[in-house]
Every structure is written in structure tokens, then in C-alpha cells.
Amino acid sequence: MSNAFYDYVRGRSETVPAGYTLAGLRAYRYLVYLGASQMVEANFPSLREQLGEQAWRLLIEGFVRQSAWTSPYYGDLHHEFIAYLGRESTDTHA
Amino acid sequence: MAGLGYRREMADWDMSLVLADFFEVAPENWIRRDRSPLHRLRASGRPVHLHGVSLNLGGDSAIDHSFLRDVRALMDELGTIRYSDHLAASGDAHQLYDLFPIPFTKQEVQRVGDRIRQVQDVLGQQIAIENSTWYTNIGDIPEPDFLGAVAEWADCGVLLDLNNIVVNYKNHGQHSLQEFVARVDLTRVSYIHVAGHEFDARFELFIDTHSETVEEQTMTMARQLQRTHGLQVLLEWDNDVPSMDTLNQELTCLTPFMTT
């Protein structure tokens, strides 16, 4: 499978790789977003409400876009999220 | 009777009232957690098998030996020889915690088959691979032939998921349940999965949600394969887990009518 497939799924690219359908790729992008959103929300239950829907969506999309997750355990995603927030705030203050 | 995918949502249930005669759990959900619920299931005389999600058989990441040693230890602890994962990728070189399609090509048959062999070498035994739902894919090998060729190359078992066949047929119109099953080497099949699915209008695709009752055609095929090939059937219900009564009704429907 091509990198272009995963670039689309992560939201890094809007180019549909040859042979794949837009609908299918959109479904995969949504399912990955949903998985990340649900696990972050389970670990930080008040964050979504504090941020509001639009900021929440942008935050999770950014988290997925830069992802290089390695753990076989989905539950470890909240460690990745904390690390992501740390990187983001460093970038902002740099 | 049939098997049931055991969920943490069932932790407070009196499992002796659940009409399942075996269970299945994702090792990823239990390796670093309190496993007393699983030991209680075992103590009731019902086996607990493993069905994983993160092996990334179709991806590019190195096979995770440390994780596999933990799976091996869990199999030994639960006294099961059945461990399966999906004929799919769970990411590229990294994990994305979902399941993605492997191109149906000859090159992938060999590459993925070799990865399955590596897994089996670490575990010291065969695994089974599940035919997966896919929402878009490339490649020129018909899906049931691809599944068979990978299983042959790796010399592994097949966990035949009837719901995934139905979802793929509704979405892509290539192989009906009857056509697909007729092309599978049933001697490789370890057991059968059934589940329900939903239509998602946003993508105009049926999505494999495991959140609904099982369709009649799937039920019928499951009962038939039990009768004709002695294959066990397991119900997966992972989202919006219903009441025990509803699950028991489904489990009862999956059992072939006995003729004595």
C-alpha cells in the first residue's frame, strides 16, 4: 500500500491515490479520527467541552496528522496525546 | 450454543446466565489489566480465545516480538491455542488503531505471508487470519483467492468472518456470501465470526460497526456451516452492547436446530 493512502487517512494530503475511491478514503480518515477522538475524550473528559467543537476537531485532526504511534495498545494513545500537546506548546512558544 | 466476544461492559453481568459456550477477547485489552473476569469465565468451564487487532500483518512495521511474547504468555495463562488477527494493516510503519486494506496482489501475498510466518515462528504455533472489511482497495486478485493464497503461503488458519463478506458484497458487489464461502478452503477455517453492521450515509458505505443484530442470510450460513462442517460460530457485538436478553436471543438463533 502506498504512502499516499496513509497521507490521505492522516489528513496530510487531499490527493486520492490511483485506484482508490474518495468515499472509502474519507471513511478511513473518519474512523481514525473517531478512534483518536474517543480515546482522548475518555482520558480528558472535560477538555472537549472546554474547547468547544471546532477547536476540539482541529486539535484531534492535528494530533492524527502528525501521528507516528508505535504502541500495540490503543489505550496508550493518551500518552501520545500528552507528548503531542508538549510539542505543540514548545512550538508555539519558540 | 455459540461463542461471544467478551467486553469489559459485561464486567457486572452474571456471566453464568449468558448462553455462550466459549468466549473471545482482544489480547490488547487484557495484557496489562486485571484478568480476573477472564479467569472466572474459564472457571465456568468455557474456553477463552484470543482475537487481536494490532499485529499490523499488512503494514510495514517490524513484527513486534515483545508484544508477541506477551500474547504467548496470555495464551498459556488462558490455556488456549487459538489466536487470530486480521488480514489487514493496522497502520503503515506506525499504528493507527484501525484496520486498513492490503492490496490484492501477488506481491502482497508473499510479503504478508512471510510476516505471518514470522509471527508463527515467535509464537511457536499457527495463528488464524480473518478476512476483513475494506472500504476501498486495489489489486487484481479476487478477495477469496487472495485470502486462500496468503493462508497457503503462510500455512496458517482462517477465521472466516461472514459479516465482513456481506459488508464487502454490499459495498463492492464482487462476491456474495455463497460465492465467497464456496471459494474458501474450509479445512483451514478455525471458526466463524458473525456480527451486524450499519449503513453510513456520509460515505454511502456499509460500515462494519458490530453494533446491530445479525442478518438472516448470515445466521443461515452460520448454522449451515456448523451443521455441515462442525465449525463453531462466535458473535461479535462491540459497540452499543445490548441487554443480556438480546445477546442470548442472538446466541440461541445461531445454534442449529438439533435433530435427534
How would you characterize this protein structure?
The complex is a heterodimer of chains A (94) and B (260). Chain A has helices at 3-10, 22-43, 47-51, 53-65, 77-93. In chain A, 24% of the residues are buried. Chain A is globular and about 40 Å long. In chain A, helix 2 crosses helix 4. Chain A is mostly helical. Helices cover 69% and strands 0% of the residues of chain A. The mean pLDDT of chain A is 94. Chain B is of the alpha/beta class and 260 residues long. Chain B has a single domain, classed as Divalent-metal-dependent TIM barrel enzymes (TIM Barrel). Chain B is 36% helix and 19% strand. Chain B is built from eight helices and twelve strands. In chain B, the strands form three sheets. In chain B, strands 1-2-3-4-7-8-9-12 form an eight-stranded parallel beta barrel, surrounded by five helices. In chain B, a hairpin with a 4-residue loop joins strand 10 and strand 11. In chain B, helix 3 (106-123) crosses helix 4 (143-154). The longest helix of chain B has 18 residues, at 106-123. The model of chain B has no long low-confidence stretch (mean pLDDT 96). The chains are: A mainly alpha (94), B alpha/beta (260). Chain A binds chain B through residues 1, 3, 5-6, 9-10, 18-21, 23-28, 30-32, 35-36, 39, 67-74, 77, and chain B through 28, 31-32, 53-55, 58, 61, 64, 67, 89, 91-92, 94-98, 100-103, 134-138, 200, 202-205, 207.
Overall, the morphology of chain B is globular
Task: State the major sheet of chain A.
Answer: none
Oligomer: heterodimer
The global form of chain A is globular
Tally of domains of chain B: 1
CATH architecture tag of chain B: Alpha-Beta Barrel
What is the β-strand count of chain A?
Answer: 0
Strand content of chain B: 15-25%
CATH topology of chain B: TIM Barrel
Mean pLDDT score of chain A: 94
Annotation field: number of helices of chain A? 5
How confident overall, as mean pLDDT of chain B? Answer: 96
Low-confidence stretches of chain B: none
Radius of gyration from the alpha-carbon trace of chain A, in angstroms: 14 Å
| N-end to C-end Cα span of chain A | 37 Å
Q: Which two chains touch over the largest interface?
A: A-B, 31 and 33 residues
CATH class type of chain B: Alpha Beta
